[in-house]
Amino acid sequence: MRSQLDVMMEVLRELFRQHGLRFSDVAGKLGVTERTVTRWFSAASVETAVLEQMCELVGIDFFTLCELAGKRIDSRPARATIQQEQELADSPLLTYLFAQICKGWTAQELRDDIDIPESVLIGHLVRLDRIGLIDLLPGNEIRLRISREMLLNPNGPYARNLNRWLGEVFKDPNVDEDNAAWVCDFMKLTPASREQLARKFRALMQEATELSDSDRRANAGSRQWYGVVLVARPLDIRPFSEWPMATA
Known about the structure:
Blueprint: H1 4-18, H2 23-30, H3 34-40, H4 48-57, H5 62-75, H6 82-89, H7 92-101, H8 107-114, H9 118-130, E1 134-137, E2 141-144, H10 157-169, H11 191-217, H12 238-241
Antiparallel strand pairs: 1-2
Helix pairs in contact: 1-5, 2-3, 7-9
């Protein structure tokens, strides 16, 4: 379960996006480095004074931030139901639309991105509304009814579908690709370090999302889709560690 701080930082991220503020902008206004801001968003604790300074950048006070976070904790579940996940897993288009809605895309942006007929788009938005994942408001405004960072049900329909998709997308890795960014290594970690790394992964993914949002708002014509996966998983490295000793 996410902590109260996690929810408050999520709210701040969304407010920064709405105000067109990237981490670099926040850093400049607060007189710190961008790395410091990134660290705040992946830390297990943040000083109240720091939160107050960030609130000022978006025109709210700390108590309003707490109120917004509290409403989110009360009103937006972290997981979809198995039935909702199955509806998504059964329709690649529905999955695509919902994933972009979680990133803050509007109905018009969804239509423009894949040139989908309006009747088809509205039909799928109505379906997402019917199964309880969004509220479709007048003017095709969209309001999420679930956390933007939806947790997957273990071995549920959505997780199984995602595993199949990842297997297809990354089945032929090539670390020398010119139009890709690959970073990989092997290391030993304690469980505590793995959890800290997971928090850093989440913060980095948020930064990547902010870059994507900035490109989207600028309507950059050179945009293309990239698969971004950050993972640290147990690895059996014995074939390397059991090399025979060199003989004299």
